[in-house]
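Sanity check. The docking grid for D-glutamic acid depends on where the pocket ends up, so I'm generating a full predicted complex first rather than guessing from homology. Inputs follow.
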Amino acid sequence: MRGAIGIFDSGVGGLTVLTALRKRLPGQDYLYLGDTARLPYGSKSETTIRRYALKAAAHLFNHDVRLLVVACNTASAHALPALAKISPVPVLGVIEPGVRAALTSGARRIAVIGTEGTIRSRAYQDSLRRRAPEVSVTAAPCPLFVPLAEEGWSDHPITDQVAEIYLRPLLDSGIETIILGCTHYPLLRPSLARVAGPGISLIDSADAVTDAVVQRFRGAPTGRGGAGQVVLHLTDASDRFRRITRTILGGDPEHLEVVDL
Ligand code: DGL
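Predicted complex below; grid placement will be based on this.
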């Protein structure tokens, strides 16, 4: 996969980024690594998240990717500087593009939701404060959203109830925009949008990082043959992960390999 765009997530949530990228840059080759054997990253310590992220990135570097997209908010929050230091290729995380998209919307009261690790890192909160000190920022971890997304309950009364519990205090505080600071959360968009209501915009970090990659690659040479090959590497390919992968990609992946890091 020499010259492919390398994408890495703790699991299969980052496939939302792969899907968004393929739509916008169909001629590129993609190598996606989902560290499903070590998922979730969101509840782990900073040291462990960084160690896992470095291993995952090394795997993609060994396959000569031309760009590393860290399609995991938790890994972006804790490991981006460490990854940038060792990377032989440009590295893009999801946090800064998400922050830029939220500020571009013009909102002055922004909420960030994500895993416990992402919220604890304060990566979003600090970046928003640095770029726009006048903006009010609130943040909430939503740990049950990842299992609900993986269960495929994207439009489900239980997800509505959980979202109501997590989002109600944010909504009552008058926020205008919610950054979906986890690559699993776009999968729950129907429930989240219903609970948030029509006046609240939901910023998808998958879309935001895709814009950043497209800007970088517009006019760049495509992958071999320009047909766009997609290879999936998972560190565990249980039936459950295969099923979720099919759901997100809308069909079976052409090339799926189980790898050890
Ligand atoms: N995909 C991860 C993220 O964007 C969440 C899943 C996990 O906890 O590993 O933060």
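Relevant for the grid: The first strand starts at residue 5 and ends at 9.
Also worth noting: The first helix runs from residue 15 to 24.
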